[in-house]
């Protein structure tokens, strides 16, 4: 859980130029001028003040086949200072960051946050400041990166959506508890579920502790425009020489139901699957041709059966994938397949979503 709901708009703060030697500079947040700023005083030798920044609308992915080498240029990491949030922050620091990228750390506070809790518990603002200081130390050799902090109040999903929209974020990173058995579906009020449904940008859900950059990603595609974007975003998160497995799941449920009604022999069932798998491999080869010509190593994977359990999750388990990527439609916010994968996957899950300019 992030925090309880309140009513105020997210505040913006930034670090002054007087940072410790060797520490990277954190810049002002691009929230609107009506955002409520936190205290403007000095704390721990650092000066805080609100600011605003205008920016043009930028597409999620620029045109061209060399997109996979650029890295991420604008990302938001959500934190509630829990262990899973620490995992999300650690993963975000291991992502390939483009030159001049923006790294924003977001905390959504409760109504009572900002006061000293029992036993001398630090307030959300001070904890956020410590988290941003840690990020600056980790990125001290990347002076080109803009490290920002956002402290908001209210509903976590609404605040995150506003921050992502105003900062032009390409990716929102958040943590999720480990899968427990027996596996249960995500609760209707689950923060992860609501984030994936309501945010208009791609979401990276981090599960295990990250120990290295992604080395064996698996991308599920259905040959749609959305799944192509999911593949391209994965190529950016996993630059060469990482090998990417690309999976297409052939759903033969309708044809198999007809064979069952006709009491067809086993040979017809086998022939059906062989034909559909061959067609899928040919189509997937054409789908991946531009990226292979650009020098990326992509492995074709085809399975038959139910998409989530028998397809995506089974393939990820067999391959030992450390990242599962799949696309979400820009118009459909409730996809059972995506939520099944989120609830059951033991590795990180990337949900690629790109809204059209008209949306």
Automatic annotation (TrEMBL):
Name of the protein in its database record: Universal stress protein
Superkingdom as given in the UniProt entry: Bacteria
Compositionally biased intervals (Low complexity): 47-65
Source species taxonomy: Bacteria, Pseudomonadati, Myxococcota, Myxococcia, Myxococcales
Residue ranges occupied by any UspA domain in the UniProt entry: 74-206, 215-353
Region annotation (Disordered) ranges: 1-65
Matches recorded under InterPro entries: Rossmann-like_a/b/a_fold, UspA
Cited PANTHER family: STRESS RESPONSE PROTEIN NHAX, UNIVERSAL STRESS PROTEIN RV2623
The family this protein is said to belong to: Belongs to the universal stress protein A family.
């Amino acid at each position: 859980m992030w925090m309880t709901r309140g009513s105020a708009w997210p505040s913006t703060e930034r670090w002054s130029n007087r940072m410790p030697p060797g520490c990277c500079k954190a810049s002002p947040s691009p929230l609107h001028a009506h955002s409520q700023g936190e205290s403007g005083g000095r704390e721990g030798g650092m000066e805080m003040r609100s600011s605003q920044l205008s920016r043009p609308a930028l597409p999620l992915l620029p045109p061209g086949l060399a997109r996979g080498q650029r890295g991420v240029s604008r990302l938001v990491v959500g934190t509630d200072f829990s262990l899973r949030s620490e995992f999300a922050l650690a993963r975000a620091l291991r992502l390939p960051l483009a030159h001049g990228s923006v790294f924003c750390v977001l905390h959504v506070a409760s109504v009572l946050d900002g006061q000293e809790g029992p036993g001398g518990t630090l307030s959300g603002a001070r904890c956020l400041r410590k988290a941003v200081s840690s990020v600056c130390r980790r990125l001290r050799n990347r002076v080109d990166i803009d490290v920002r902090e956002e402290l908001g109040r209210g509903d976590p999903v609404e605040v995150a959506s506003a921050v992502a929209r105003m900062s032009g974020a390409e990716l929102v990173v958040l943590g999720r508890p480990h899968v427990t058995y027996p596996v249960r579906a995500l609760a209707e009020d689950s923060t992860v579920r609501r984030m994936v449904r309501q945010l208009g940008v791609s979401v990276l859900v981090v599960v295990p502790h990250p120990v290295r950059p992604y080395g064996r990603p698996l991308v599920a595609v259905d040959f749609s425009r959305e799944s192509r974007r999911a593949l391209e975003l994965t190529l950016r998160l996993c630059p060469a020489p990482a090998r990417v497995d690309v999976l297409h799941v052939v759903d033969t449920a309708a044809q198999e139901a007809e064979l069952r009604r006709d009491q067809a022999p086993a040979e017809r069932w086998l022939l059906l699957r062989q034909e559909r798998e061959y067609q899928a491999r040919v189509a997937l080869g054409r789908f991946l041709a531009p990226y292979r010509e650009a020098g990326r190593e992509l492995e074709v994977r085809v399975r038959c059966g139910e998409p989530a359990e028998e397809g995506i999750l089974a393939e990820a388990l067999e391959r030992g994938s450390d990242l599962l990527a799949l696309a979400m439609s820009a118009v459909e916010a409730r996809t059972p397949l995506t939520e099944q994968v989120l609830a059951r996957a033991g590795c990180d899950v990337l949900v690629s979503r790109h809204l059209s300019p008209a949306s």
